[in-house]
Amino acid sequence: MSYAQAEFIVRYMRMRGRNVFYPMGFDDNGLPTERYVEQKYEINKARTTRSEFRALCLAETAEVAVGYERFWRKLGLLPRGAIVIARHGDRVDGVVVLAPGWAPNQAHRADVTKLLVHRRARSAGLGRRLMTALEDHARAMGFRLLTLDTRRGDAAERLYRRLGWCEVGVIPDYAIYGQGWCDTVVFYKRLAPSP
Fold first, then answer.
1. Angle 172-107-148 (CA atoms, 0-180°, nearest 5)?
2. Domain shared by 64 and 115, yes or no
3. 139 SS3 class
4. Closest Cα to residue 25, out of 9, 46, 36, 49?
5. Do residues 8 and 104 both lie within one domain?
6. Is pLDDT above 90 for 183?
7. I need a surface site. Which of 8, 59, 84, 146 has the fewest CB within 10 A?
8. Contacts by 177-182 with C-beta closer than 8 Å and gap 24+?
9. Which residues contact 126 (CB under 8 A, 6 or more apart)?
10. Using 50, 70 and 90 to split pLDDT, how confident is the model at 65?
């Protein structure tokens, strides 16, 4: 999941016709959609219009997503995580990711692994709206406990406090930041069950 957030944004922007350089990606490290579409429809993407090729890729991706969900449901493993993306026209202004606990004894909890809001969209309540949407999804999926961490002193720390998150503590020198180290603040939030 470490590259998933960036890959989703890059893929979305490419499908919208943007020329995005991102050497790692969906086609090389996951489902090779473009090559699959070329083989299935016996076409060459260089000899078809970008919009037609993009439409075929989007249709195949949607079809595969439905198949994956059907497969996981048959196994009794309903996908409960989420990626919430905030768009403004063609651009992505923010994203937040929910990753369910992996261990069998942690099925009741999930981690908020990343909240990103583009600087052009900050100070307009987008972070709050993304977190609210993610918490609503988590509640609907039956999660009762969420955890996250953020750089100490960052605007996100203040946002999480305003949204009712509880501080667990501070871990010093948790990550490299710039030319040095930064501390991280760990938070949790208990969710009331869905009505």
1. 25
2. no
3. helix
4. 9
5. no
6. yes
7. 59
8. 177/151, 182/151, 182/152
9. 86, 93, 94, 117
10. low
